[in-house]
Fold:
Amino acid sequence: MGGMIVGPWYGVQPAWWAPFERDARLRFGEALQHSYKRSYLTYRLTGLDVIGEAAPSTVTIRFFERPPYATYGQRPEDFPRVHAKPGAASKHRYVEDDALCLWHPYDPVEHRWTSEKGLLELIEIVRTHLFLEHYWRLTGGDQGGRWLVEDAPHGLPGSGAWRSSRPQRRRVVGRGRRPLP
Structure:
């Protein structure tokens, strides 16, 4: 670092986490716990009700100072790892660690969650995702199950694993049109 003084990471700065978690704490109270470690911040929510599920879910959300996974150019605070219902069948989970895949990392910012939107909004995205997984399993899962909302692509462009059920998006470039990358 050449003598450069580096401040504490965002997860230990009250100016970041106090407004970030305020609304979630008001909504969930004691059911929302947190723990701070040297390089990561973990939120654990117990008793999250999900439509259609018989039992409430426990959700773990972990923010890393330096994530041990790819963030695809996003800030670490905008790309946490979220876990719930370990091992449940889903078409939208990361193979490496069973984390929920809640948005496509290359989607425009208006289609992704960012930390400025707060912890409560992230928890509501998780609740919706768990409902969608449940419905997908009920309607056949890997054998033709239905995902009730627009389905984000799987894989990354050029990876050989890219597929999408989204309609082809296009953007205007100059006078003509070309497909988005």
